[in-house]
Amino acid sequence: MWGLQQYGIHAVIATSFAEIFHGNAMNNQLLLVTLPPDQVEQLMDESDDANGLSIKIDIAAQTLHSSHVQACFELMPRHRKMFLENLDSIGLSLTYQDQITRLAQKHWSQQPWLHNVAEFCTRTGNEPS
What we know:
Layout: H1 2-6, E1 11-14, H2 19-27, E2 31-34, H3 37-47, E3 56-58, E4 63-65, E5 70-72, H4 77-84, H5 89-94, H6 97-110, H7 117-124
Parallel strand pairs: 1-2
Antiparallel strand pairs: 3-4, 4-5
Enzyme class: lyase
Function: Catalyzes the isomerization between 2-isopropylmalate and 3-isopropylmalate, via the formation of 2-isopropylmaleate.
Keywords: Amino-acid biosynthesis, Branched-chain amino acid biosynthesis, Leucine biosynthesis, Lyase
């Protein structure tokens, strides 16, 4: 996936992708577009044209346009947000910082005895009962 990006490829269009490649690629800003076989074949035929192939991919609208193919594609909401806001996985997590903080505060207020368990065990040599 990084090799493709280093070569200047920003998107790959195919009929399917292996699950682990899909997850890694999307999380690292390599857009994967899944289209039906007939549309992929049309794009391949179009790429053989002497004038070359020009494709416009609109991530916000989740559409793809070439001279002969107009298609819609699906993106998971998290991946769409990552591409539109130029975020990696950590950056995406940080957009939820307020919710994470509120959840942590709620957790510690409901279960305060868990807050320093590791420190207590290390300091006293005891296991919690």
